[in-house]
Amino acid sequence: MMDYVLRGVLTLLEPVGFLWAALIVLTALLLRKNERRLAAFAGGLALLIWVIGATPLPGSILATLERPWVGVKRAELPTADAIVLLGGYGAPSREEVGRLHFNGSADRAVVALELVRLEKAKVLIAGGSGFTFEGERFAEADLLKGILDKRKLTGAEVISLGGCKNTRHEAEKVAKLAKERGWKRVLLVTSATHLRRATAVFRTTTGLEIIPVPSAFVTSASIVTLPSLDLVPRSHGFAKLDAYLHEQIGWLVYRRRGWISAEDAAR
User: Fold this and answer.
1) What is the pLDDT of residues 23-77, one digit of tens each?
2) By the 8 A CB rule, do 237 and 53 touch?
3) Nearest-5° angle of CA 159, CA 164, CA 168?
4) Which of 30, 96, 256, 267 could form a disulfide with 39 if both were Cys (CB 3.0 to 4.6 A apart)?
5) How far, in Å, are 49, 165, 220, 265 from residue 66 at the CA level?
6) Nearest 5°: CA angle at 163, between 159 and 169?
């Protein structure tokens, strides 16, 4: 119990916890001055921050995007012409091995390599973002390809898509490769939260048979955790809510732009 309270006190030093505590103090001061409307606003905002940052609710909401992909057995997936690994698994770094820093979505790369080990395809396509910094061009996919090729970590042919602007851009580049090589089917690896939108845009853009492969689960839909209430709110709930809103808004934007057909949206 003491550790639980101590952790809550220390969390008050974090930005979200500090803001929440400040709102509670402000609410109390406003009530003391009989400013009930302002106090209700400040108190309501404090309550909202606590619900998002201290309860399992954001995780439960995000889990609705992951749950449809629970239970996919990689060993039972069909073989394909290529494995497509979408970007988002790392960022350029001056100090890390291969100059690539792997982030919380690095499971994407691990799952893609597992598919290669299972001999699901002989070609691994790496996607990802790219940008120029201090006159040097960086691409997430180029860095991963360099790590894999230099260390001979896979027997598959590794193809980098270079720097891509978004999932649609990755799909366009894969569509060009598929046309050149006569591919019919690809295994698509990305985070479970992103898989619905990614699969739809790849089907619409490439015309290929797309086999979705989930990875990088972040909620209790896959990760073994016990639901709990925190004393003081933290940022993790906001990150999960942000991921959920990002996908929902992204879906609407892609549909509006015609990047996801009505047929694919209905699947």
Assistant:
1) 999 999 999 999 999 999 999 999 999 999 999 999 999 999 999 999 999 999 9
2) yes
3) 100
4) 30
5) 24, 24, 9, 17
6) 90
Radius of gyration over every alpha carbon of the chain, rounded to an integer in angstroms:
22
What strands lie across the sheet with 123-126, from one edge to the other? 157-160, 123-126, 82-85, 185-191, 209-215
Residue with tokens 């050149």: 180
- What type of residue is 188? L
pLDDT for residue 267 is more than 60: yes
CA distance 23 to 43: 7
- The beta strand positions in 182-228, using DSSP E, are 185-191, 209-215
What does the alpha-carbon distance between residue 224 and residue 246 come to, in Å, rounded to a whole number?
24
Whose structure tokens read 């929902």? 248
Query: Higher confidence at residue 132 or residue 58?
Result: 58
**C-alpha closest to that of 190 among 158, 166, 206, 209:** 166
Q: Please give the DSSP secondary-structure letter assigned to residue 79.
A: P
DSSP helix/strand/coil, 226: coil
- pLDDT of 222 above 90: no
Tell me which residue has tokens 């790392």: 90
Smallest CA-to-CA distance from 228 within 60, 37, 113, 9 is with 60
Contact criterion met (CB below 8 Å) for 218 and 240: yes
Query: Which of the four pLDDT bands, split at 50, 70 and 90, describes residue 243?
Result: very high
Task: Please report, in angstroms and rounded to a whole number, the separation of the first and last CA atoms in the chain.
Answer: 49
**Rounded to an integer, what distance in angstroms lies between the CA atom of residue 43 and that of residue 39?**
6
Can you list the domains of the chain with their CATH numbers?
A: 1-70+229-267 (no CATH), 72-216 (3.40.50.620)
Q: How far apart are CA 182 and CA 201, in angstroms?
A: 20
